[in-house]
Amino acid sequence: MNRFSLNDKTALITGASRGLGKAIALAFADAGANVVLVSRSESTLLKVKKEIEQKEGRANIFPFDLFQVDEVGELFHRIRAETGHVDILVNVAGTIFRTDAVDFPLDQWQRILTLNLTVPFVLSQSFARACIDGKHPGKIINIASLLSEAARPGIPAYTASKGGIKQLTMALAVEWAKYKINVNAIGPGYFETELTKPLVDDKAFTRWVKESTPIGRWGLPDELTGAAVFLASAASDFITGQTIYVDGGWLANL
Question: Is residue 139's pLDDT more than 80?
């Protein structure tokens, strides 16, 4: 089981103050990693840091608004200067806006594509340059979605961004494999998080989720973390360019 250990690794996780990002951060800390937490809210990051440290884990926080995409590269350099080499990058931060495609505002389209697709690319660039320059291997994990494979009405920008994340994962994987940088993605199904609370509270939608998911319920954030630890660890060294769907069987269901 030592191949699943993250001892002596440093993992940078965006969107780490809540939901899936927080769950991954806690799991990585439990697996031995020093976790670097990035999110806009310093107060919520401090709560996650405290939770990790109460279990004798190690955490650093970097409050930052990732919509400032021109400054993302500088953020990465500051993180390296303060924490040392980053071994693992997990691109979790994302957003969504819901309305019909015919009425979808261009500013919301650009906002979603920026955070969900451009920021992961820019961070991955900075991470890869550091790995290549230092001749270090690395692991990148992107958060894709069921909507990397399917579609629902009313979320065209989110769907486009998550389709893009799947393709970006493959593009970076084949280009950076020669540098021993593995690039994979996790496609969550329907999970109960702060982001999905309006849908969880919608009785009709929750009924549809349960009927469409063979396991018959919403997922819990902790149920995503096994795949994340696996993809971050030496146990996945011969896996790259893949998207693992953690969806309760949703995509397999007709």
Answer: yes
Q: Pick from 250, 15, 24: which is nearest to 149 by CA? A: 250
Closest CA to 231 of 164, 119, 146, 143: 143
Q: Parallel, antiparallel, or unpaired: how do β-strands 10-14 and 243-246 relate?
A: unpaired
Domain ranges in the chain are 2-246
User: Which of 158, 179, 190, 245 is labelled catalytic?
Assistant: 158
Annotation marks residue 190 as catalytic: no
Query: How far is CA 150 from each of CA 1, 94, 95, 99, rounded to the nearest angstrom?
Result: 35, 18, 18, 17
When pLDDT is cut at 50, 70 and 90, the band that residue 194 belongs to is confident
Per-residue model confidence as pLDDT tens digits over 161-174? 999 999 999 999 99
Long-range contacts (CB closer than 8 Å, 24 or more residues apart) made by 49-56: 51/26, 52/25, 52/26, 55/29, 55/30
Structure confidence at residue 254 as a pLDDT band (50, 70, 90): confident
**Rg value, the chain, Cα:** 17
Architecture (CATH level 2) of domain 2-246: 3-Layer(aba) Sandwich (3.40)
58-63 and 243-246 beta bridge pairing:
unpaired
